[in-house]
Amino acid sequence: RGLGCSARRAREDSWLKSLFVRKVDPRKDAHSNLLAKRETSSLYKLQFHNVKPEYLEAYNKLCQEVLPKIHEEKHYPCALVGTWNTWYGEQDQAVHLWRYEGGYPALNEVMSKLRQNKEFTEFRKERGNMLLSRKNQLLLEFSFWNEPVPRDGPNIYELRSYQLRPGTMIEWGNYWARAIRFRQDSNEAVGGFFSQIGQLYMVHHLWAYKDLQTREDIRNAAWHKPGWDELVYYTVPLIQEMESRIMIPLKISPLQ
């Protein structure tokens, strides 16, 4: 019993010390400058649309007709990264992820052009009649995560969303810069993002799996790798809330 108590106290002391250890440059700077990719200036928009159940099929059809036109339009500096329906999680929900090459100026340019696009104006009006609610967030991508690029399917996607405690984003980044190395073997890591506008201190990790059993096998295998359990142990206290969505891509999604 004595040895067990000593080991537990040592682990708790180690955890407490970790909260006060900052491994990045402690200079005064926004965490977006410390954690985001420096070689790119891409901005991401994540949209959540809660659709009236009776309209989900019509909503998907409408999106599949209109969204590719925006994605393929050369004069719009944006790209559709992925579009899905939630399978497990919040039901009758659509999730869209967009990338704006060039940051906020690109976002402003796209929004300005779309306001003058008659077809898009009609699309928004028709889409609005099908929705119960909607929200979005503007995101940056973590420097240590994969760039989300098109991939062949079929796959299911998991969007794991974490509401962090204010002030802990740097610590999260420090730990996950190491943790991501444990989750690369099966090419399941798609992208990692943190919010800039919308709900703040939000982190989103996007994963791809062949099916639910493959997801279970890959996640269980991580626990057999030395160091993974320690990183999980340290990151859990940084989280206020967390949510997992299992999503199915639409036919037009570059991520299949």
Automatic annotation (TrEMBL):
GO terms classed as biological process: mitophagy
InterPro entries: Dimeric_a/b-barrel, NIPSNAP, NipSnap_domain
Pfam families on file: NIPSNAP
Domain NIPSNAP: from-to ranges: 157-254
Record-linked Gene3D superfamilies: 3.30.70.100
One GO cellular component, as annotated: mitochondrial matrix
Family: Belongs to the NipSnap family.
PANTHER family: NIPSNAP-RELATED, PROTEIN NIPSNAP HOMOLOG 2
Descriptive protein name: NIPS2 protein
